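Example record used in the benchmark description.
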Amino acid sequence: MKSGTAIIIGAGPAGLTAALELQRRSNIKPIVIEAATQVGGLSRTVRYKGNRMDIGGHRFFSKSDRVMQWWLELMPVEASEATDGELRYQGQQRGVPIATRTADPSHDELVMLVRERRSRIYFMRQFFDYPIRLTYDTLRKMGFARTMRSGVSYMRSAILPRRQERSLEDFLINRFGRELYETFFRSYTEKVWGVPCDQISAEWGAQRIKGLSLRGVVSHFLKKTFSTSKDGDIANCGSTWPALC
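Model output (structure tokens):
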């Protein structure tokens, strides 16, 4: 078996998983480099004045039982929620694999918390669902003038897209238009990641925002408006989400 040293940048879930798997499966010594004083990256939950606070708006959800079981062996579901294991995410749902043990979050920090979650953006002194959904409520809050500007801006980007997508800014403007990019994406992304959008690669955007486009949002809106079926709702609101603790 090969031996050596592996340098892992970042102690988020991916970095920690890589380090642990290297220790388990090889003679390679992992060295994890993390800029923060705590591990977990944007998926960590911290205690502040008796409250738990998520650093990033994260959800833990996978269609792979292997992935779910891997994490539950390290961080089991809290005891009160261990038998109520149905998770929903982007119109999909799954049961939680049975954990090897349960834990009490009041004493054990390494535990999966199951909480009802709602992601929203505070903009123009109003809350918007995130990811942005094309609903009457969204259009009403945006106002007629901004909605029209967004439509015209999107049409301009659809007809005359930026030919070379070098940055995340190019990527988002081509798919949503400059108006929506400036309204929702620019400041939010820069606050979360600490890097201007024009300094983030377009490839990063393609990986993080798979299949997301204004055309898809409009298509979903029309299907929901004229369909009598109640299935296929992609809304996040009201679903049950687990958070890494």
